[in-house]
């Protein structure tokens, strides 16, 4: 069956590509460590007609992992080819096609690593995630798993976690998703994928986090203290590996760069002019030679251990409360030029999310799209929608129930589609008129996400996997990058690798990862149970690359969910930025024995590099 036929999909040319639909079953979840056990590829032309099919089991040469999920035992895989033996055939099917998968970054990362192990590059220039596409379309489903979408779109599923059957199910979901995207005028979330060479996928050895807090710099003549940040530059008589090992054994924190938080720079040539030496001089960092450093290592004073979170104790009972309204929320103060990150604001009452409960509100279950007006005018309207209990949309989707039209909104490219869909269009004064909820609920199972205003806080019911997704409308010609910082109790990274961004999309232990789901959607995945004890806060921010500001880029929507395809638990539309180029979106942080989520929305006029330096990271 074709993916989509021209009579069913208007303006198909905008959605017509050569496609390669892919599904892989794997021995685990970490692409740099685990292996592909089976793969299926279906190819389709721009007219939606299938042109090819290939599926095979693969011998990974290792333990197949969770057999209870995929059913692929070592015995079943023992006679299968290795990935290297079939890489050429798979590459030919992917070449010059858009790779499509459900949770596409997962499949793409595994294929990239497998091709790298075979000393080949993955011939994929673009990929599309059907999960991300359906988040844009917003069909009325509880979650976006393959099974949930298959049920909604009426696609039969006979054998879950079978690569070939899953790919055939994917084809049916993709066909229906394309038709719905075309009906709504939703742009496809195509992600550029430059070929990645083998060196970029070389596994990095795990780095043991320092167990001690940073005590600052030593005064002249004083001993080193456990937890001090140490950097090394230039040639040393002792091998670098041995020098680092001895420092780590003494409880010191070895850094790959110099910042204002560095305690000591070790160099045998302070006049070398290296980047580290220049920065150390500029920041007033103590500089010692190798011989002095080795003497200091013999007498390192005890440091202060990181606070270890209390485990196993029941949380202290608190009365649920509504977060403060935007006018009374404690805003994060603007930082001084040399002190960028801001200490955590005073604790606000947190909402507890009761299971499957819902309270009727004036705009409850309404999802309102605001068109036209200046950024400030639209921001006021969106805030009013949230105040009335509704949700503010940033893009046209199947979930939008109403449109508020401000001056100039008539010329918005989405208005033609709004008219064709027959959506109610209201003037701004509609927000002052009491209205009933729409008769049709967006999700029949009652899964309604908590709508948070700026500064709103909720408790997280579990300490497992959480996803913080950020999305925005493409209103300006600019790139927006989502980043994350794993911070200790001093609001500093423990090591440079605790800065997660496009160039380093995963923390050393894999507990925090960046996912790129489309040109206007990126997310941070956090495994709270896997975080090191020193981690007390994960700050999620966005930065604009270029001269544009968030005032021209528009609002950013933040969604919190307990899994990549799970229903949203909370959402917030952040409009707090005008002239700012970086925006602190949200944070997940410890509060006693539990974790909490806060929608922040604090903007800064400086660029990402300044924000990064403030958290203790030096970007070369």
Largest sheet: 6 strands, mixed
The termini sit apart by 52 Å
Low-confidence stretches: 4-11, 195-206, 311-346, 353-358, 441-446
Record the strand order, biggest sheet: 3-2-1-4-5-6
Secondary structure tally: strands: 26
Gyration radius from CA atoms, angstroms:
26 Å
Shape: globular
Write the layout of secondary structure elements.
Layout: E1 19-26, E2 36-44, E3 50-57, H1 67-70, H2 74-77, H3 83-94, E4 98-101, H4 104-117, E5 126-129, H5 130-137, H6 146-153, H7 163-184, E6 190-192, E7 229-232, H8 240-249, E8 253-255, E9 264-266, H9 275-283, E10 286-288, H10 290-297, E11 367-371, H11 375-387, E12 391-393, E13 402-405, H12 415-421, E14 425-426, E15 450-451, E16 457-459, E17 465-472, E18 479-487, E19 499-500, E20 512-518, E21 521-527, E22 537-545, H13 550-553, E23 556-561, E24 570-574, E25 582-591, E26 594-604, H14 608-614
Parallel strand pairs: 1-4, 4-5, 7-8, 7-9, 9-10, 11-12, 11-13, 13-14, 15-24
Antiparallel strand pairs: 1-2, 2-3, 5-6, 16-26, 17-21, 17-23, 18-19, 18-22, 20-21, 22-25, 23-24, 25-26
Which structural traits does this protein have?
620 residues, alpha/beta, 6-stranded mixed beta sheet, 26 strands, 21% helix, globular
Structure explained in plain terms:
Helix content is 21%, strand content 23%. It contains 14 helices and 26 strands. The protein has helices at 67-70, 74-77, 83-94, 104-117, 130-137, 146-153, 163-184, 240-249, 275-283, 290-297, 375-387, 415-421, 550-553, 608-614; strands at 19-26, 36-44, 50-57, 98-101, 126-129, 190-192, 229-232, 253-255, 264-266, 286-288, 367-371, 391-393, 402-405, 425-426, 450-451, 457-459, 465-472, 479-487, 499-500, 512-518, 521-527, 537-545, 556-561, 570-574, 582-591, 594-604. The strands form five sheets. The protein has a six-stranded mixed sheet, sandwiched between helices. It has a six-stranded mixed sheet with strand order 15-24-23-17-21-20. The protein has a six-stranded antiparallel sheet with strand order 16-26-25-22-18-19. The longest helix has 22 residues, at 163-184. It is globular. The two termini are 52 Å apart. 42% of the residues are buried. Mean pLDDT is 83; it is low at 4-11, 195-206, 311-346, 353-358 and 441-446.
